[in-house]
Amino acid sequence: MTEPVDFCRLDEAIARYVRSGDAVHVMMGHSRWSALVRELARQHWGKPSRLTLIMASLSSLGAVLFRAGCLEKVVTVYSGDSFPVFTPNPVFQEAYGSGAVEVENWSFLTYIQRLRAAATGVPAVVTGSVRDSSMAENDAYQEVDTAFGRVGLVAPLVPDVTLVHAAVADRQGNLAIAPPMFEGVVGALASRRGVIATVEKVVDDLRPWSTLVRIPAHRVRAVVEAPFGAHPGGVYAGPEGTRLPVRGYLEDIPFWISVREATRGADFDAWVREWVLEPADHETYLAKLGPERLADLVRGAEHPPAAPPAVRRDDAPTGAEKAAVWLADLLARRVAEMPADTVLAGAGLANLAAWVGVGRAREAGHEVALAAELGLWDYTPTPGDPFIFSFHNFPSSSMLLDTEQVLGNLVNGARFRSIACVGAAQIDRRGDINTTRIEGGPYLVGSGGGNDVITGADEVLVVGAMGRRRFVEKCGYVTSPGRRVRAVVTDLGVLTMRDGELVLTHVAPGPEPLADRVARVRERCGWDLAVSPHLRELREVSTADVEELRSYDPEGHFLGRGRTPVPTPGSITERKADVHTR
After folding, report:
1. What predicted TM-score, i.e. pTM, was given to this entire model?
2. Which of 185, 489, 492, 567 could staple 466 via S-S, CB 3.0–4.6 A?
3. What does the pLDDT read at residue 369?
4. Starting from the edge strand earliest in sequence, which strands make up the sheet with 376-377, in order?
5. What pLDDT is recorded for position 492?
6. SS3 433
7. Are 120 and 157 in contact (CB under 8 A)?
8. Residue 452 has pLDDT above 70, yes or no
9. Is 233 helix (H, G, I), strand (E, B) or coil?
10. What angle do CA 236, 237, 241 make, to 5 degrees?
11. pLDDT at 561
């Protein structure tokens, strides 16, 4: 007989159901954090608990668990910051580099597929990702010859317990969560001992919202009623007509930025004491945030964002802006020529260029869908908000899904023609991409969905500043194989794949003689870059081009311009990031 669900306090839930040596899975929906994880850090602070953390995207707050000293291993997809830009994080880099914490890297799809294998009780699940990448060396991946051809297999990933923030529970313990669902709920179904959940509210009956009930009560061990339990993440209450009986709230981006800044300074321990260790309970934490701040997050979720501020038109375009404009040109042309059904872009500069390029293709009459790996399909981006997973983009989506559906069935589906727009920390002459770690150097961030979409898309367009640190002879670590890379757009020109090697086919305009501009590109490339005999010159970037880009990113987070400081707790402000990896 299934034990009744334990409705208890936050501290009781962690103390009763998480044990030393556990593999703890933090489930990632559109809510990417929970009060449970904060309590986990509190109770295991300074203890050799030998926990394995299974968490798709660590983001800056994951550093709290590293500093706690309770982790032995991490199984993940992305170890880096998410706000305001996607960058490596020094806490993760130090822990992985020293060996204090072991890291096992996967792509989004293979991570989910491993959980699915555990949930369904099969010895392995077939995957189309990871092949020809360095992740193929993982022990849990094998390729085998079968009567149906050679297939890649991933072994089950079995958590002991899963932590999740759901929107609503009923009094039996069933959990309702609005889409988009990111990794879905397979981890909750896979965990040996079940789920510990925080929720915004407990209600008597969830049957009016049965389409949003994702986790059945018999998989749930404990439920904690904790309003704003996803903070600094947010809660989307659902689209009109199926909205759950709670008030949603936006992600607290200034708070995320404050964590990121703290991990880079000598005051990280002070930040952890202030926001994690010293608040005695969740109510104290919310009181410290203050009712006005929380109310602003609720209002932000209930109303469309204000019109973005006017963007400057008088300053010259940055190199990043030029590259983004030229990528948008190429993307719009390729959408028409294929024709493409969908475009999926990695976060950051590639994403902004994709938004512009898809907009142009749609204006020309091409019905191409924008997709995002979180679970968005056919969405319209929000001016003034450059973050790819912004809650403001959810209502415009024609479908709200999960990562497995978007990456596995649609973008990479056999009946869809797709284009991927991505960035790269490193790319070599064959188009192989590295966003995971520099050989003999620092850890970067990992694959995210990069390997999945780069492996499965019909073609891949890459964007990045031209320089020898990025354009290398050969990637020491291959996050994503380059066989589907069509072109790399840079601030100095475009490299196009010709017979398995990238060659210079387009050069940026400028007052210098053509030969000097070509020499500059070749000088900044880490291999002996060949030049096409049919070299062409790119067009000048206009004021209108730049204005369109900046309308999505008015503060210049991804466009390489000076940023307006963002107020954060403790008056910490954002510093300009120097490396973009996704």
Report:
1. 0.94
2. 492
3. 96
4. 399-400, 376-377, 369-372, 342-345, 418-423, 459-463, 485-489, 493-498, 501-507, 531-537
5. 98
6. strand
7. no
8. yes
9. coil
10. 130
11. 64
